[in-house]
Amino acid sequence: MGKIVFFLFLILTFHMNNAYSISTDLEKIYLENGEYTEVNKAVQEAKAFLKKDIPLPTRLPPISFTHVFASFNQKGSQLTIYYLDENNGKKHYTLVIIPNENDMSYPNDAKKVHLGNGKEMVYFKSNDFIIYRTVSNDFEYTIIVDKVSNNTITVDGIVKIFTSII
Fold first, then answer.
1. In this model, does residue 15 exceed pLDDT 60?
2. Cα–Cα distance between 97 and 72 in angstroms, integer?
3. Residue 62: DSSP 8-state
4. Across the beta sheet with 139-146, what order do the strands follow?
5. Nearest Cα residue to 134 out of 101, 163, 91
6. Are 128 and 147 within 8 A, CB to CB?
7. S-S: 46 plus which of 38, 72, 132, 165, CB 3.0-4.6 Å?
8. Residue 14 scores a pLDDT above 70
9. d(Cα 163, Cα 21) in Å, to the nearest integer?
10. Residue 106 neighbours by CB under 8 Å, 6+ apart
11. What per-residue confidence (pLDDT) applies to 22?
12. pLDDT at 164
């Protein structure tokens, strides 16, 4: 009985150390090169640069994420938040927020959905991603979802996320 417990202990210890190693490696990749930071830091940097509050959605899609990173590009005034799952590299969810200063053009096959709050959302496919856009509070919000997650993250789900922007 003692040998079985010992082997279970070794297996669990190895598995937990391996999981920590993957998590640490992902954080090093995103945080140590200085391009990405914690979400709160990037949002504060964007607010200070733009001199206005940036409302964020209060809802997320119904898929799991293990890490969230962000970046703010002053040149393009672009705040980008990346949601990643270290266990599934095929699931991507990205939120991009820029000041709404230009009229955006969309492909001919873009679809429009009314959000119910007087605003509308436009969405279209681009390569292996689906792009959803809306304008709220003087900002353009873009959600980029990979086609793999499209079965889980529906148009109705994106509508709920966009309408949660306060």
1. no
2. 9
3. S
4. 67-73, 78-84, 92-99, 139-146, 129-136, 120-126, 111-114
5. 163
6. yes
7. 72
8. no
9. 38
10. 122, 124, 133
11. 43
12. 92
Minimum mean pLDDT among 64-68, 74-78, 160-164: which range? 64-68
Mean pLDDT, the chain, rounded, equals 80
- Tokens 């599934």 sit at which residue? 88
Yes or no: say if 83 and 65 are a contact pair by the CB < 8 Å rule: yes
Token code pair at residue 61? 């899609």
Tokens of 117: 């709050």
Chain-centre distance for alpha carbon 76: 18
The reported pTM is 0.79
Is 144 exposed, middle or buried (CB count within 10 Å of its CB: 0-12, 13-18, 19+)? Answer: middle
Give the whole-angstrom CA distance, residue 8 versus residue 80.
42
